[in-house]
User: Which sequence fits this backbone?
Protein backbone atom coordinates (compact mmCIF):
# COMPACT_ATOMS: atom_id res chain seq x y z
CA UNK A 1 0.00 0.00 0.00
CA UNK A 2 1.33 3.40 -0.97
CA UNK A 3 1.03 5.99 1.82
CA UNK A 4 -1.02 9.11 1.14
CA UNK A 5 1.96 11.37 1.84
CA UNK A 6 3.79 10.05 -1.25
CA UNK A 7 1.03 11.33 -3.50
CA UNK A 8 1.01 14.68 -1.73
CA UNK A 9 4.79 15.00 -2.06
CA UNK A 10 4.60 14.17 -5.78
CA UNK A 11 1.88 16.77 -6.17
CA UNK A 12 3.94 19.37 -4.28
CA UNK A 13 7.04 18.76 -6.38
CA UNK A 14 5.15 18.97 -9.68
CA UNK A 15 3.43 22.14 -8.47
CA UNK A 16 6.85 23.61 -7.65
CA UNK A 17 8.13 22.76 -11.12
CA UNK A 18 5.05 24.43 -12.58
CA UNK A 19 5.70 27.58 -10.54
CA UNK A 20 9.33 27.63 -11.71
CA UNK A 21 8.20 27.33 -15.32
CA UNK A 22 5.67 30.11 -14.79
CA UNK A 23 8.30 32.43 -13.33
CA UNK A 24 11.29 31.85 -15.59
CA UNK A 25 9.90 31.38 -19.11
CA UNK A 26 9.60 34.26 -21.59
CA UNK A 27 7.19 32.66 -24.03
CA UNK A 28 3.53 33.29 -23.10
CA UNK A 29 2.44 29.88 -24.40
CA UNK A 30 4.98 28.19 -22.15
CA UNK A 31 3.61 30.21 -19.23
CA UNK A 32 0.15 28.84 -20.01
CA UNK A 33 1.52 25.30 -20.18
CA UNK A 34 3.04 25.83 -16.73
CA UNK A 35 -0.38 26.84 -15.40
CA UNK A 36 -1.83 23.61 -16.80
CA UNK A 37 0.97 21.72 -15.07
CA UNK A 38 0.08 23.31 -11.72
CA UNK A 39 -3.62 22.50 -12.18
CA UNK A 40 -2.71 18.88 -12.90
CA UNK A 41 -0.57 18.60 -9.79
CA UNK A 42 -3.47 19.83 -7.68
CA UNK A 43 -5.72 17.27 -9.38
CA UNK A 44 -3.35 14.49 -8.34
CA UNK A 45 -3.58 15.47 -4.70
CA UNK A 46 -7.38 15.83 -4.88
CA UNK A 47 -7.77 12.37 -6.39
CA UNK A 48 -5.42 10.91 -3.77
CA UNK A 49 -7.39 12.47 -0.91
CA UNK A 50 -10.63 11.25 -2.47
CA UNK A 51 -9.28 7.70 -2.52
CA UNK A 52 -7.83 7.69 0.97
CA UNK A 53 -10.76 9.49 2.66
CA UNK A 54 -13.23 7.24 0.79
CA UNK A 55 -15.17 10.31 -0.30
CA UNK A 56 -16.32 11.26 -3.78
CA UNK A 57 -15.96 15.02 -3.31
CA UNK A 58 -12.33 15.05 -4.41
CA UNK A 59 -13.11 13.43 -7.73
CA UNK A 60 -16.03 15.82 -8.31
CA UNK A 61 -13.67 18.69 -7.61
CA UNK A 62 -11.17 17.34 -10.16
CA UNK A 63 -14.01 17.27 -12.68
CA UNK A 64 -14.71 20.96 -12.05
CA UNK A 65 -11.02 21.85 -12.16
CA UNK A 66 -10.75 20.23 -15.60
CA UNK A 67 -13.82 22.19 -16.75
CA UNK A 68 -12.34 25.47 -15.56
CA UNK A 69 -8.96 24.56 -17.09
CA UNK A 70 -10.62 24.06 -20.48
CA UNK A 71 -12.37 27.42 -20.21
CA UNK A 72 -9.14 29.08 -19.06
CA UNK A 73 -7.13 27.61 -21.94
CA UNK A 74 -9.70 28.80 -24.50
CA UNK A 75 -9.81 32.35 -23.10
CA UNK A 76 -6.05 32.56 -22.54
CA UNK A 77 -5.16 31.41 -26.03
CA UNK A 78 -7.72 33.83 -27.49
CA UNK A 79 -6.01 36.63 -25.55
CA UNK A 80 -2.64 35.50 -26.93
CA UNK A 81 -4.02 35.58 -30.49
CA UNK A 82 -5.44 39.09 -29.93
CA UNK A 83 -2.09 40.17 -28.49
CA UNK A 84 -0.18 38.69 -31.42
CA UNK A 85 -2.41 40.57 -33.83
CA UNK A 86 -1.67 43.81 -32.01
CA UNK A 87 2.09 43.24 -31.85
CA UNK A 88 3.72 40.19 -33.49
CA UNK A 89 5.48 38.91 -30.41
CA UNK A 90 4.47 36.57 -27.62
CA UNK A 91 7.28 37.41 -25.23
CA UNK A 92 6.29 38.21 -21.67
CA UNK A 93 8.75 41.12 -21.39
CA UNK A 94 7.25 42.98 -24.33
CA UNK A 95 3.68 42.86 -23.06
CA UNK A 96 3.82 45.98 -20.90
CA UNK A 97 1.01 48.17 -22.21
CA UNK A 98 -0.63 48.37 -18.78
CA UNK A 99 2.59 49.40 -17.07
CA UNK A 100 1.90 53.14 -17.40
CA UNK B 1 8.90 -2.77 -1.75
CA UNK B 2 5.66 -4.16 -3.01
CA UNK B 3 4.53 -4.09 -6.62
CA UNK B 4 2.23 -1.17 -5.84
CA UNK B 5 5.10 0.89 -4.49
CA UNK B 6 7.34 0.00 -7.44
CA UNK B 7 4.71 1.13 -9.94
CA UNK B 8 4.12 4.31 -7.96
CA UNK B 9 7.86 4.98 -7.83
CA UNK B 10 8.12 4.64 -11.60
CA UNK B 11 5.12 6.94 -12.13
CA UNK B 12 6.43 9.53 -9.66
CA UNK B 13 9.89 9.65 -11.24
CA UNK B 14 8.44 9.75 -14.75
CA UNK B 15 5.97 12.53 -13.89
CA UNK B 16 8.65 14.65 -12.21
CA UNK B 17 11.12 14.16 -15.06
CA UNK B 18 8.51 14.85 -17.72
CA UNK B 19 7.45 18.05 -15.94
CA UNK B 20 11.04 19.28 -16.03
CA UNK B 21 11.21 18.38 -19.73
CA UNK B 22 8.00 20.35 -20.36
CA UNK B 23 9.19 23.60 -18.82
CA UNK B 24 12.71 23.53 -20.29
CA UNK B 25 12.06 22.84 -24.01
CA UNK B 26 13.02 25.63 -26.41
CA UNK B 27 10.33 24.86 -28.96
CA UNK B 28 6.74 25.10 -27.60
CA UNK B 29 5.62 22.28 -29.90
CA UNK B 30 8.10 19.91 -28.25
CA UNK B 31 6.92 21.07 -24.83
CA UNK B 32 3.30 20.30 -25.74
CA UNK B 33 4.26 16.83 -26.99
CA UNK B 34 6.14 16.11 -23.73
CA UNK B 35 3.06 17.34 -21.90
CA UNK B 36 1.03 14.74 -23.80
CA UNK B 37 3.25 11.95 -22.44
CA UNK B 38 2.96 13.51 -18.99
CA UNK B 39 -0.85 13.48 -19.17
CA UNK B 40 -0.88 9.81 -20.11
CA UNK B 41 1.22 9.08 -17.02
CA UNK B 42 -1.12 11.12 -14.83
CA UNK B 43 -4.06 9.16 -16.28
CA UNK B 44 -2.32 5.94 -15.24
CA UNK B 45 -1.89 7.42 -11.76
CA UNK B 46 -5.65 8.06 -11.63
CA UNK B 47 -6.31 4.43 -12.55
CA UNK B 48 -4.00 3.58 -9.69
CA UNK B 49 -6.26 5.60 -7.36
CA UNK B 50 -9.43 3.79 -8.53
CA UNK B 51 -10.64 6.84 -10.47
CA UNK B 52 -11.42 5.40 -13.89
CA UNK B 53 -13.66 8.30 -14.91
CA UNK B 54 -10.91 10.82 -14.16
CA UNK B 55 -8.40 8.79 -16.18
CA UNK B 56 -10.79 8.84 -19.14
CA UNK B 57 -11.49 12.57 -19.02
CA UNK B 58 -7.80 13.29 -18.44
CA UNK B 59 -7.07 11.67 -21.81
CA UNK B 60 -10.17 12.93 -23.63
CA UNK B 61 -10.32 16.52 -22.41
CA UNK B 62 -6.75 17.39 -21.47
CA UNK B 63 -4.84 15.44 -24.10
CA UNK B 64 -7.57 15.46 -26.72
CA UNK B 65 -8.96 18.98 -26.47
CA UNK B 66 -6.75 21.35 -24.50
CA UNK B 67 -3.38 20.24 -25.90
CA UNK B 68 -4.73 20.24 -29.45
CA UNK B 69 -5.93 23.80 -28.84
CA UNK B 70 -2.41 24.71 -27.71
CA UNK B 71 -0.90 23.08 -30.81
CA UNK B 72 -3.33 24.95 -33.06
CA UNK B 73 -2.43 28.30 -31.55
CA UNK B 74 1.31 27.60 -31.71
CA UNK B 75 1.05 26.65 -35.38
CA UNK B 76 -1.18 29.66 -36.07
CA UNK B 77 1.15 32.21 -34.52
CA UNK B 78 4.27 31.23 -36.47
CA UNK B 79 6.76 32.52 -33.91
CA UNK B 80 10.17 33.31 -35.32
CA UNK B 81 13.20 31.27 -34.29
CA UNK B 82 14.99 34.40 -33.09
CA UNK B 83 12.38 34.86 -30.40
CA UNK B 84 12.87 31.37 -29.09
CA UNK B 85 16.63 31.80 -28.84
CA UNK B 86 16.49 33.15 -25.28
CA UNK B 87 14.33 30.77 -23.33
CA UNK B 88 14.40 32.28 -19.85
CA UNK B 89 13.99 35.67 -18.26
CA UNK B 90 17.11 37.47 -17.04
CA UNK B 91 16.72 36.66 -13.36
CA UNK B 92 15.86 33.00 -13.80
CA UNK B 93 18.36 31.53 -11.29
CA UNK B 94 16.80 33.61 -8.49
CA UNK B 95 13.33 32.36 -9.45
CA UNK B 96 14.47 28.75 -9.47
CA UNK B 97 16.21 29.03 -6.10
CA UNK B 98 13.34 30.79 -4.33
CA UNK B 99 10.71 28.41 -5.68
CA UNK B 100 12.88 25.40 -4.87
CA UNK B 101 13.24 26.62 -1.26
CA UNK B 102 9.47 27.15 -0.95
CA UNK B 103 8.78 23.71 -2.42
CA UNK B 104 11.29 22.15 -0.03
CA UNK B 105 9.54 23.84 2.90
CA UNK B 106 6.17 22.49 1.74
CA UNK B 107 7.68 19.02 1.39
CA UNK B 108 9.03 19.17 4.94
CA UNK B 109 5.65 20.29 6.29
CA UNK B 110 3.61 17.75 4.29
CA UNK B 111 5.98 14.82 4.74
CA UNK B 112 3.93 13.01 7.38
CA UNK B 113 0.43 13.92 6.23
CA UNK B 114 -2.19 11.21 6.66
CA UNK B 115 -5.95 10.73 7.05
CA UNK B 116 -7.77 9.53 10.12
CA UNK B 117 -11.19 7.97 10.66
CA UNK B 118 -14.09 8.55 10.35
CA UNK B 119 -13.82 7.86 6.64
CA UNK B 120 -16.51 8.62 4.08
CA UNK B 121 -19.08 6.15 2.86
CA UNK B 122 -17.57 5.48 -0.58
CA UNK B 123 -15.31 2.55 0.17
CA UNK B 124 -13.55 0.69 -2.64
CA UNK B 125 -15.98 -2.22 -2.36
CA UNK B 126 -19.01 0.03 -2.70
CA UNK B 127 -17.57 1.88 -5.71
CA UNK B 128 -16.62 -1.41 -7.29
CA UNK B 129 -20.08 -2.88 -6.76
CA UNK B 130 -21.88 -0.14 -8.71
CA UNK B 131 -19.11 1.24 -10.89
CA UNK B 132 -17.00 4.40 -10.63
CA UNK B 133 -18.89 6.38 -13.25
CA UNK B 134 -22.30 5.59 -11.79
CA UNK B 135 -21.12 6.62 -8.33
CA UNK B 136 -19.70 9.91 -9.63
CA UNK B 137 -22.84 10.58 -11.64
CA UNK B 138 -25.10 9.96 -8.70
CA UNK B 139 -23.13 12.35 -6.45
CA UNK B 140 -22.70 14.93 -9.21
CA UNK B 141 -26.39 15.14 -10.09
CA UNK B 142 -27.69 15.19 -6.53
CA UNK B 143 -25.36 16.83 -4.01
CA UNK B 144 -23.35 18.92 -6.49
CA UNK B 145 -26.08 19.87 -8.95
CA UNK B 146 -25.74 23.65 -8.58
CA UNK B 147 -21.95 23.70 -9.16
CA UNK B 148 -22.55 21.46 -12.18
CA UNK B 149 -24.95 24.01 -13.67
CA UNK B 150 -22.52 26.83 -12.89
CA UNK B 151 -19.80 24.88 -14.73
CA UNK B 152 -21.96 24.91 -17.85
CA UNK B 153 -22.26 28.70 -17.44
CA UNK B 154 -18.46 28.99 -17.21
CA UNK B 155 -18.10 27.04 -20.45
CA UNK B 156 -20.65 29.32 -22.14
CA UNK B 157 -18.68 32.38 -20.99
CA UNK B 158 -15.50 30.78 -22.33
CA UNK B 159 -17.06 30.13 -25.75
CA UNK B 160 -18.40 33.67 -26.09
CA UNK B 161 -15.23 35.20 -24.68
CA UNK B 162 -12.94 33.28 -27.00
CA UNK B 163 -14.96 34.30 -30.06
CA UNK B 164 -15.14 37.95 -29.02
CA UNK B 165 -11.44 38.16 -28.14
CA UNK B 166 -10.10 36.41 -31.22
CA UNK B 167 -12.43 38.06 -33.73
CA UNK B 168 -10.95 40.65 -36.06
CA UNK B 169 -12.56 44.02 -35.31
CA UNK B 170 -13.68 46.25 -38.12
CA UNK B 171 -12.07 49.67 -38.13
CA UNK B 172 -8.94 48.51 -36.28
CA UNK B 173 -6.21 48.01 -38.91
Assistant:
Amino acid sequence: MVPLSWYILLSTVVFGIGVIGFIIRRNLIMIFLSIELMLNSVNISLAAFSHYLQSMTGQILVFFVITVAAAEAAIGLAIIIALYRHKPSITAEEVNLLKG
Amino acid sequence: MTAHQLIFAYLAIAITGLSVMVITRRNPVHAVLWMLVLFVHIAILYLFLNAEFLAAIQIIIYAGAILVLFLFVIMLLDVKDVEMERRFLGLWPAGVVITAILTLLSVIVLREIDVFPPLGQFSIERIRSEGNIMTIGRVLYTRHLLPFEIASLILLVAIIGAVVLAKKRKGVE
The first helix of chain B runs from residue 3 to 24.
